[in-house]
Write a structure and sequence with these properties.
Keywords: 4Fe-4S, Iron, Iron-sulfur, Lyase, Metal-binding, S-adenosyl-L-methionine, Thiamine biosynthesis, Zinc
EC number: 4.1.99.17
Radius of gyration: 23 Å
Bound molecules: iron/sulfur cluster
CATH topology of the largest domain: TIM Barrel
Number of domains: 2
Largest sheet: 8 strands, parallel, barrel
Protein name: Phosphomethylpyrimidine synthase
Structural class: alpha/beta
GO molecular function: 4 iron, 4 sulfur cluster binding; phosphomethylpyrimidine synthase activity; zinc ion binding
Low-confidence stretches: 475-480
Shape: globular
Function: Catalyzes the synthesis of the hydroxymethylpyrimidine phosphate (HMP-P) moiety of thiamine from aminoimidazole ribotide (AIR) in a radical S-adenosyl-L-methionine (SAM)-dependent reaction.
CATH architecture of the largest domain: Alpha-Beta Barrel
Length: 480
Amino acid sequence: MTQIQRARDGEITPAMERVAEREERDPEFVREQVAGGQAVIPNNHAHDSLDPMIIGREFSTKVNANIGNSETTSDLDAELRKLHAAVHYGADTVMDLSTGERLDETRAANVAYSPVPVGTVPIYEAVKRADDPADITHELLLDVIEKQAEQGVDYMTIHAGVLMEHLPLTDGRKTGIVSRGGSILAQWIEENGMQNPLYAEFEEICEIFAEHDVTVSLGDGLRPGCLADASDEAQFAELETLGELTRVAWDHGVQVMVEGPGHVPMDEIGDNVDRQQAVCDGAPFYVLGPLVTDVAPGYDHITSAIGATEAARAGAAMLCYVTPKEHLGLPNAEDVRDGLAAYRIAAHAADVANGLPGARDWDDALSEARYEFDWERQFDLALDPERARAYHDQTLPGDNYKEARFCSMCGAEFCSMRIDQDARDADGEMASIDGDTDLDASDAAAVNLPPVGTHDASGVPDEIEIGGVTFTPETPHADD
Ligand code: SF4
């Protein structure tokens, strides 16, 4: 049975217990959220190394990192390093979007080595296996989906909402259909003159998902690819279909989340979230950015993190990160790091603003360390401790500067916090700064414990054999 089926039966599963522990929430509250479809616990029965986590608007905002190879870059070692970087820098889930060679091996390695849920987009493999995308058959799609479910994939993006009747609505857009899955399915529909096979076979797909407890992530194949196309008729027509499919999946006992745009002007993001929540009966919203401006290629981790913050503030449950390479090239491990940092900032900023239990305590503890010139603690508490330490040490590397009451930004004479401290010391009445936030006692301890989350990687094997080759890559543990 799936987590939602067991939740509806009133059972608090071990996964719900673990999630409650990580989120500092009541297990019964977790069960209610899963039973009602407002939260999902992606947790394929065959994913042995997984540490269960939850995605829902009532819980801490999660971040997904896309990894995977492409036609031009296919290297299994490099893929495992990317997985490691993603988990190390705080990804709550990863999506293997490989479109290059050795798809099965790459997916198997990622599932075996990942303590976080692994998502995929099965249409990519179907395209690779067919001679021509137009030749993809219903049987091939179901075969790919079933095989990936058996491999242990925790959630799959299914672009079942791209309907034949929606396609004319994209005429006149500035950037057409920008979702890879959406564009492939549109081409298939046009060339075959038939309805989207993922829509036609959706109930069959749900039966496979229910058997393995794969969460369906209803893809937004008609999402806008630029500000000019945001919130248009095509996008919202597809959303209505995703609402319909949400209820079909729930009827089959399948956990559901719904994907969202893309590129959206800042002032439209809140309405987009409200609309999805209304149309999809509160199913978790998983947004891709959105980018709030189109003019900054090379910096789209920033343009999109701004939109992601706004979306999470409005109720989005998971943010799909964007790296600086977006629109430009395949990200490497350093890009993964930069993208994740941007998105963990977005997620945390929204959690603070939304009053998630204990979220602010992390900020307060770091601020106190900063004011007390406790440099080591400030580095340890930083979202990216390695970078904070490296930047400080670029100009003041000596150990003596770890106790200095200044850094190189203002210098000793003009350090405002030093001046403020001295003034307070001189006047006892001002010495009332509270510097005792105890993070271990905070509700945040298990959620946002610095530096990067609390994935338990003890289920990850020391080595795996893929295609006759033994791999012993670094264990992707958040604390290493
Ligand atoms: S020198 Fe400036 S930036 Fe550095 S610790 Fe003091 S106030 Fe902060």
